[in-house]
Write a structure and sequence with these properties.
This protein is mainly β and about 375 residues long. About 10% of the residues lie in helices and about 40% in strands. It has five helices and 25 strands. β24 and β25 form a beta hairpin.
Length: about 375
C-alpha cells in the first residue's frame, strides 16, 4: 500500500522550538514526488497528536493521507483520509479535488474519527503527476499529488514457491485486467494438472486498490507425470482469454528436495510451548493426555507440505502437520506441527510416532511413553 502524508503544525508551535524558518525552507527544497519531508519536531503519530491537543487546547492543522496514489493505473482506487478535523468543523463540506478524478470527491465522516473516501482514477488519465487538494467549505486545508502510470494490457500469471513446479505443489493463479473497457467477474482456469476447474475471485484484502485483480490458490495434482501442462483462462460465456504453459517435474536424486534436511519428530508439552520445552524424541504422557509434535525440514518437498502427517497407534487419529508461519518460527528451518490426543484407556507402554516425508524416501521415528493412569 502506498502512503504519503502532509503534516502541518501551527506556526506558534514551530516558533516555540525555534525551527519555523528551517521547516518551511528545507522542506520545500528536499521534498520529492515519492516522499514527504516531516519536521523533526512533529508528533510521532495520531495518538500523540490527540494527547497534545488535549493538553494544550490548540488545534492542529488537518493531516492528509493518501493510499494507492503512487504508480497508480487508470481506474485504480485511491484512498483519501483527513485527520485532525472534527465533525463539528467539517460538517458535510469536506471535498477533494483533482484532475485525476472524474469529478469532486465528497469525504464522509468515518467511525475512526476521520473524514475519508475511496475513488477510482479516471479511465482517461494520462501518465504523470496530478495535484490533489482537500477543502472544507471551499477553503483548502491540505494538498498532495497522485502519480499515474500508463495502463497495462491484461495479464494471466502462475506463481509458485519452488524453482521447478513439483507434483502436488500449491500455486497461485492470477489475472489482472485493470485496463480500459474490461468488464465481467466470471473467470475460470482449467488444466489437466489441476483436480478440477478453479474459479478466480477478487480478494479485497490483498488487492483492494485494484478492483480488476482476480486470483485463486490451487494445488497441482500429487500424481502428475513429468511434463508440460497448459493452463487455460476462460472468461464470461466460456470465452478463452489466455493460456500459460507450466513444466512440472518430480524431484530426482541430486535435487536438494529429493531427501531434504529433515530432523524430528520433536515431542513436547503443548501447554508449555515449543520454545520453552525440552525437545525430546521420547515423551511421557498419561492416557487421554496431549502431546505436541514438531517436524523440521530445511529443504521440504514443495508438493507434500500440505500432506505431512504423524502417525501413532497411541493417537486418537492421524495427525496432520501444519506449516508454522508464526513469528516464533522466524530464523528457523521450515517447520510443521500440531497437537495429538492420546487414546483414553491405552495400556502403559512405549509407542512409536512416525513421520514419512519426501514421498517415502525419508522416515523418522519418535516415541511416546504412556504411563499408568
Amino acid at each position: 500500500m502506498n502512503w504519503t502524508r502532509l503534516v502541518g503544525f501551527a506556526a506558534a508551535g514551530l516558533a516555540l522550538c525555534g525551527c519555523a524558518h528551517a521547516a518551511s525552507t528545507s522542506g520545500a527544497a528536499q521534498r520529492s514526488p515519492r516522499t514527504t519531508v516531516h519536521s523533526a519536531h512533529e508528533a510521532a503519530d495520531k495518538a500523540e497528536g490527540d494527547r497534545g491537543r488535549a493538553l494544550t487546547g490548540k488545534p492542529f492543522k488537518p493531516v492528509l493521507e493518501l493510499a494507492g496514489n503512487l504508480d497508480a493505473r487508470p481506474e485504480q482506487l485511491v484512498g483519501i483520509r483527513l485527520d485532525f478535523l472534527s465533525r463539528a468543523q467539517g460538517h458535510d463540506a469536506v471535498t477533494a479535488h483533482s484532475p485525476a478524478f472524474s469529478g469532486p470527491v465528497r469525504l464522509r465522516w468515518q467511525d475512526d474519527d476521520s473524514y475519508g473516501a475511496t475513488r477510482p482514477l479516471a479511465m482517461t488519465d494520462k501518465a504523470g503527476w496530478y495535484p490533489l487538494e482537500v477543502s472544507v467549505a471551499g477553503r483548502t486545508v491540505a494538498r498532495d499529488r497522485i502519480h499515474v502510470v500508463p495502463s497495462e494490457r491484461p495479464s494471466f500469471t502462475l506463481t509458485f514457491g519452488s524453482e521447478v513446479a513439483r507434483p502436488g505443489e500449491p500455486l497461485w493463479l492470477n489475472f489482472d485486467d485493470l485496463y480500459p473497457g474490461e468488464r465481467g467477474t466470471d473467470f475460470t482456469v482449467r488444466s489437466a494438472a489441476l483436480h478440477r476447474p478453479v474459479r478466480l475471485v477478487h480478494d479485497e484484502r490483498n488487492d483492494f486498490y485494484n478492483p480488476r485483480a482476480f486470483s485463486a490458490r490451487a494445488e497441482l495434482a500429487p500424481g502428475l507425470a513429468d511434463g508440460d501442462y497448459t493452463f487455460e483462462l476462460y472468461g464470461p460465456h466460456g470465452h478463452r482469454i489466455a493460456d500459460k504453459r507450466l513444466t512440472v517435474r518430480a524431484s530426482r536424486p541430486g535435487d536438494a528436495d529429493y531427501l531434504g534436511k529433515a530432523h524430528g519428530p520433536d515431542l513436547y508439552d503443548p501447554n508449555i510451548g515449543y520454545a520453552d520445552s525440552p525437545h525430546r524424541h521420547d515423551f511421557k504422557v498419561s492416557p487421554g493426555g496431549r502431546v505436541a509434535v514438531m517436524w523440521h525440514d530445511a529443504v521440504p518437498d514443495p508438493g507434500e507440505e500440505t500432506r505431512l502427517t504423524a502417525t501413532s497407534s497411541a493417537f486418537t487419529q492421524v495427525l496432520r502437520l501444519n506449516r508454522d508461519d508464526s513469528k516464533s518460527a522466524d530464523g528457523d528451518d521450515p517447520r510443521y506441527f500440531n497437537t495429538a490426543t492420546i487414546r483414553a484407556g491405552l495400556k502403559p507402554g512405549r509407542y512409536p510416532v512416525t513421520i514419512v516425508a519426501h514421498h517415502g524416501r525419508v522416515m523418522k521415528v519418535g516415541y511416546v511413553t504412556v504411563t499408568a493412569p
